[in-house]
Design a protein that fits this description.
This protein is α+β, with helices and mostly antiparallel strands and about 325 residues long. Helices cover about 40% and strands about 25% of the residues. The protein has helices at about 20-30, 30-35, 85-100, 100-115, 120-130, 135-145, 160-165, 170-175, 215-220, 225-240, 280-285, 295-300, 320-330, and strands spanning about 5, 10, 15, 40-45, 60-65, 70-80, 145-155, 175-185, 185-195, 245-250, 255, 260-265, 270-275, 290-295, 305-310. The protein is globular, with a radius of gyration of 21 Å.
């Protein structure tokens, strides 16, 4: 289904991309607009030692709006007219294989840090956002704890959803961004679907592989400390109220009592909980874990005032359980 854009009642013309480079250059030129002003994009670099299985992505993106939880993305740009199973599928699958190899990740971290150190402009971008925080640590934290692949494409392909249904790692790691441009007279309009801030929580059109969304799906990559924290929170809350439901969905496990009142996102060394209360309420109770505000767009997605609570170990969870108990009774 084609999107039609109007400005002041006048239809805009969609500009079609003849070559992949046109879409790639559009994305690179406008990456701060598309992905946020606290993102840093590093163009594709020839990586030796076959660290990415001879497949080089079109770029590397760091999202550092939350310096304690930096996000990392391999960026691959493709045109929908390209053959999926001959071209797109093998390329993305090589990136997935890369993420599964700890030595390859270490080599990439070192190469990215070397690139930052030898490029004053990129180094300045990191310093502007990070201040005195250690760049190497941020890069390491991002690559090790936030492994994502963004496929930027001009039109959705049914084969992408087929791959997500068939392969669990495609479903977990690959996010799709539809990027297009339109013209009305001398005005150029860009569209990005979904918005970047929602790419981690927005489902694919066909809903992915719902039969696989269980606790094991979410906990598979988590370390033992994070698994311990999750099960302790779950056990304590069910002891308080055995009618609570822990409901695994695609990108989170929601906690339900008449309504979804919390959303658990599990990473390798961190457990994030989106709690549907004002940030000020969290500040009153949470003293031993990090809490952070969420953008208006994310709060609109959850249809509620909310904030994010980050847990890195199983200590001091009583305050977390108490806060969730209060919210469950709202």
């Amino acid at each position: 289904m084609e999107t039609v854009i109007y400005i002041n009642g006048r239809k805009c013309s969609k500009i079609k991309f003849k070559k992949e480079d046109e879409l790639e250059n559009l994305m690179i030129k406008n990456h701060k607009i598309l992905f946020g002003n606290k993102t840093i994009f590093i163009k594709k670099t020839k990586i030796k030692n076959q660290a990415l299985g001879n497949a080089i992505p079109d770029g590397f993106l760091f999202d550092i709006k939350d310096t304690d939880n930096p996000q990392f993305y391999l960026i691959e740009v493709e045109l929908a007219k390209h053959d999926f199973y001959k071209h797109i599928f093998p390329q993305i699958t090589k990136f997935i294989a890369f993420f599964n190899n700890s030595e390859n990740r270490k080599q990439l971290i070192d190469r990215l840090f070397e690139t930052v150190n030898t490029n004053k402009e990129i180094e300045k971008e990191f310093r502007t956002i990070l201040g005195k925080k250690e760049i190497y640590k941020i890069i390491t934290d991002a690559v090790e704890n936030s492994q994502n692949i963004i496929l930027v494409i001009d039109k959705n392909k049914p084969e992408i959803d087929e791959a997500k249904k068939a392969y669990i790692e495609w479903d977990k790691l690959v996010k799709v961004e539809l990027l297009n441009q339109y013209r009305r007279d001398n005005n150029i309009l860009l569209t990005l679907t979904p918005s970047f801030e929602e790419v981690e929580i927005a489902d694919s059109p066909n809903g992915g592989i719902k039969e696989r969304y269980d606790e094991e799906y979410h906990l598979e990559s988590a370390n033992e400390e994070i698994k311990k924290a999750y099960y302790l929170i779950k056990r304590k809350l069910l002891e308080i109220d055995n009618q609570l439901i822990f409901n695994p969905q695609h990108y989170y496990i929601s906690i339900v009592k008449k309504r979804n009142f919390a959303y658990i996102q599990i990473r390798k060394t961190k457990l994030h909980i989106v709690i549907t209360l004002p940030y000020s309420e969290g500040q009153k109770i949470i003293k031993n874990h990090k809490i952070s505000t969420l953008s208006k767009g994310i709060q609109n997605f959850y249809n509620s005032e909310c904030f994010k609570l980050t847990i890195e170990n199983s200590d001091n969870l009583d305050e977390v359980i108490n806060l969730l108990k209060i919210n469950s009774n709202k």
